[in-house]
Amino acid sequence: MRDEVIGEWLFYEGFLYFYVYLYIDQGEFDYKTSAKRTEIFRRELPLALTAIRYGDNLLFGKYPNLDNAMIIVNFISTYPQFIVQENWGSFSSLSI
């Protein structure tokens, strides 16, 4: 079971994005469990993003424009209902 928030910086068409990958399930859970995991990820993701921002404080200090990069979250699941890509704003819009 993976309860990880995996992120990477991507440069696309002149813009920098922070892409986040959330593995809801990989065929190892039933629908109900996957729905619950999706709910938990959504609830806890702001805290995880805040922790990433805090942990990379030196990087953000050196490159302040990173605070304005869009955060794109990819929910990955074997169930089509939970597969979605969403814009979660930017690090500057988080309550840090």
TrEMBL record:
Alphabetized UniProt keyword annotations: Membrane, Transit peptide, Transmembrane, Transmembrane helix
Domain of life, source organism: Bacteria
InterPro entries registered for this protein in UniProt: Staygreen (IPR024438)
Protein name: Staygreen protein
Species of the source: Ureibacillus acetophenoni
Ranges for domain Staygreen protein: 1-92
Stretches that traverse the bilayer: 6-24
Pfam families, per database record: Staygreen
